[in-house]
Design brief:
Blueprint: E1 2-27, E2 34-42, E3 46-51, E4 57-80, E5 86-87, H1 109-115, H2 119-125, H3 127-141, E6 143-144, H4 155-161, E7 163-164, H5 166-179, E8 184-191, E9 205-214, E10 218-222, E11 234-240, H6 243-246, E12 249-255, E13 259-269, E14 274-277, E15 286-290
Parallel strand pairs: 6-7, 12-15
Antiparallel strand pairs: 1-4, 1-12, 1-13, 2-4, 3-4, 5-10, 8-9, 8-11, 9-10, 13-14
Helix pairs in contact: 1-5, 2-3, 3-5, 4-5
Length: 293
Amino acid sequence: MRLTIEHETHYRFGEPAHHSIQYLRLTPRTDSSQTVISWSVNTPGKLKRWIDGFGNIAHVSVQNGVHDEVPVTVRGEVETFDTCGMLPADDGLPPLMFSRPTPFTDVTPAIAAFAEPFRERIGDEGSIAALHALMLGLHTSISYKGGFTDVSTTASEALERGTGVCQDHAHLFIACSRVLGVPARYVSGYMYCVPEADEPPSLASHAWAEAYIDEKVGWVSFDTANSRSATDAYVRLAVAFDYAGAAPVRGVRKGGGVEDMSVRVSVVEEPDAIQSQSQSPGVQNQYQRFSPG
């Protein structure tokens, strides 16, 4: 599938800002599930490309001087392949690195209790079948609803509330996988989906998880929000232990006052279908203010 993607994030400030730094993980890399044909990142200020510790393509943008807005626009074209949600075992850091706890995926007694019944299924049915059952269990237990969680919500908080977005579903799957002794990682990216005639466009910006099975199988994707593995409708942006390391946009600034943010994401399968939404509640951007001095 050949997908054309446009992703615009626009920050507007109520007062002049004097210094802004943005950390952007908005560039996909070529792997066994996708080939990047073209890609561009545009934002004011100095833009420096680097590779982070997870192998993600990242950029740092620094904007000095007085400014009252920070626009970020990425555009590109990616050829995707349906690998049944599987990626090679040697794709990135050693898998056991993804067994470590994080603030977003900390295992509480409630999470352990939710995951424990699936341990026996690993022995009876195998890891892949058991993890698909875990994914379905989380999908039916955590309602997909925007506005009840935000970028600071942890897996345990989402489980307690019984609602969340794709970020929360991914964090819960990772935490439960760790209870079962299965390394799992967070994935940010895009998803293309053609809506039914009477339905609004589906979210284009998305997040899911990948679990490590063994050396032969490698990594397998689990999109708990949609209860399925990734297909050629998915574009991978970044992987990390959790949202904190894979957030599409994070930043800090001096000054600026009250901030307003707008996001537009468009994923187009050439030549017809278009998915667009003014603000995706799935993968949220994070921009933090810091005080001068």
